[in-house]
């Protein structure tokens, strides 16, 4: 039985349809990556699956329970770490995770033990009795994650778990997620970082403007798009000339950052000499040339016509969370 | 860690779990007072200033015939205590709005804890917190000569204060969850201020201007004030107490139900 | 330049209605409650002859709005300071005082409007302005001038502390100072020690200067006393502002 099953899920805010009919299926023990740019509808979907928002249409079930009719049972089976780590700065880490244990209905002694154990697991034992207000971003995410696990949920929802974190903290979270998954927890994570989806997810659903535009394993999706492309860094104002020069050689993809020209080349590395020659003949100065194999961004471009992200930035944007 | 079976049925939390949750939420609420330096001051200062101010400014009214007492401070101290309760309860609403804006309430809503448990935690915390300004105002009142209300008068007054704070917390929580924003704060405060002062607060019912007299006669809080005031101006009797209790019970029922409804509709 | 800053200050004040409402709504609520609750007080021996308690209280409510406007202007000024806007102004070749004066324009405008509001409320609910139109104009003038004066104090505090939350924390003080004056009840009938404090409180002189034209008619002595009190506060505000300015420009 699937851990998460979604059919035609919709959510409207006034006139705006933020989620326009989503179907997906996550099996038990899977890591599902929900990938999409800011504003695509990821957070809205997660909020519906975690019963924080009522769907306007369609249905969804989590851990075998309908999110509308059996909301309470859903809440008892899931662990949630939302985008804005919902932590109280005045509490200590230990107090917070113990409160979570109480909220989940765990008996006092067992709850305390689990809480303390989890703090250890995420490396926060030392800081456990300091106020959360003094924690770093990475520490807060780890605490949030630990709190989400206190009742051993079968399904874990992580909404943009590493947005705004430094690379080291990001790796730590990834390791933790993998470890959890090895123990059998189903993980539904949303992210705007393609590397995160690529690295962690068994299955990826790509969402844009409220619709799933592609779904499958990262490898399958990339294979679909298939072709590598050449990425050229040219001088200012030379983009048009470079594109003209390369137009015959392969399909032009939308340029990036105003200075990078992208040309899809079926033959891969073999196409490079021809590209160089064409640019040379056109008198276009090239600062660098790279052969890039398909990424999930390419899949995204293929399906939607625009890039998922300009470049991976350390602090991500904020997806406006409708109340 | 063993994987829990996905189809494990989740039983509703038992009464023990619910009570533990309420207490844990109350414990968290105290942090606001105890861990933030000076946080208690506004809640205590406002009713105290009003008490001393009203007494200094309007104390002369006591010479009008119609007052049961010759001590204006005894007459108004229960009003100031109830004002403090209103302020404390409304502040609980403001805190809830802030918690909502910061995402904390999501943590509560995503857990299997029943909504009424979450509301009770907030409301009970306000009731208990109201003891702080109430006691402070009372101490100041005694210092300037207010009458000792007797143990029964004191108990009745404090009971009214705690219940009034709960009423105010329900009102504040209802607004907080409906508007999901701290900008509703003035409405929370003003609503409670109006409720407590559109009564025989400054003077007995017969001495109020006609329009206010009519309003006070329909305002349930009038009974609350009369009940809380008993020991301070005379003796305590059941016939003067039960209307206040009934009024508070009714207000609690109505506002509590509204607040609970809003709590259940946060996902709409 | 003063005009430009003044215009900005006025625009800022009225762009956020939720900030205005406490300045006008709260005193209006209090007016209703206090006239309703304490209105019988006019029967007390020694109470000045008035048509109604409402007629008596109008001046007090105007004072209250005016004081709250001063506090609010101080907060806005402190926010400007916190955000560094005033630093930019100080660096420009503008006379220092023009900056403060421009800020005060917003406060004065609020005071002006508050006085009109309460006069209107009074008329709507049946209170007579005994001094007629000249009396009303005098009241408006005195309140607007007081708003400038009190605004100056608010500005001085903002300059000295540079912190909006400190200025905001002084809000209870506004109420205290008003309670310790004859804003809400005749000074002779108040209770000690408030009674004695009210006797010497400059705000009492101002309130009575505003009240007289409403309850009985223009009285030269009362008016002069009010003007003197306002002048006193203006001087105080100037001195404090000057010192605070010097301190701020030295410390930066």
Explain the layout of strands and helices.
The complex is a heterotrimer of chains A (323), B (268) and C (252).
Chain A: E1 4-13, E2 16-26, E3 31-35, H1 42-49, E4 57-62, E5 65-66, H2 71-77, E6 78-81, H3 93-103, H4 108-121, H5 137-148, E7 155-159, H6 167-182, E8 186-191, H7 194-200, E9 203-208, E10 211-216, H8 218-225, E11 229-234, H9 239-246, E12 252-256, E13 260-264, H10 272-282, E14 286-292, H11 296-304
Parallel strand pairs in A: 3-8, 3-9, 6-7, 7-8
Antiparallel strand pairs in A: 1-2, 1-4, 4-5, 9-10, 11-13, 11-14, 12-13
Chain B: H1 15-34, H2 40-58, H3 72-101, H4 104-110, H5 115-129, H6 131-143, H7 150-179, H8 185-197, H9 210-218, H10 221-233, H11 238-264
Helix pairs in contact in B: 1-5, 2-3, 2-6, 3-5, 3-6, 3-7, 3-8, 3-10, 5-7, 7-8, 7-10, 7-11, 10-11
Chain C: H1 2-15, H2 17-38, H3 53-83, H4 85-91, H5 96-124, H6 132-161, H7 164-169, H8 171-179, H9 194-200, H10 202-215, H11 220-251
Helix pairs in contact in C: 1-5, 2-3, 2-5, 3-5, 3-6, 3-8, 3-10, 5-6, 6-10, 6-11, 10-11
Keywords:
heterotrimer; B: 268 residues; mainly alpha; disordered N terminus; C: 252 residues
Short description:
The complex is a heterotrimer of chains A (323), B (268) and C (252). Chain A has 323 residues and is α/β, with parallel strands linked by helices.
What does this structure look like?
The complex is a heterotrimer of chains A (323), B (268) and C (252). With 323 residues, chain A is an alpha/beta fold. Chain A has 11 helices and 14 strands. In chain A, a hairpin with a 2-residue loop joins strand 9 and strand 10. Chain A is elongated, with a radius of gyration of 22 Å. In chain A, 48% of the residues are buried. The C terminus of chain A is likely disordered. Helices cover 73% and strands 0% of the residues of chain B. Chain B has 11 helices and no strands. Chain C has one domain. The longest helix of chain C is centred in the C-terminal third of the chain and has 32 residues. The chains are: A alpha/beta (323), B mainly alpha (268), C mainly alpha (252). Chains A and B meet through helix 2 and helix 3 of A and helix 1 and helix 4 of B.
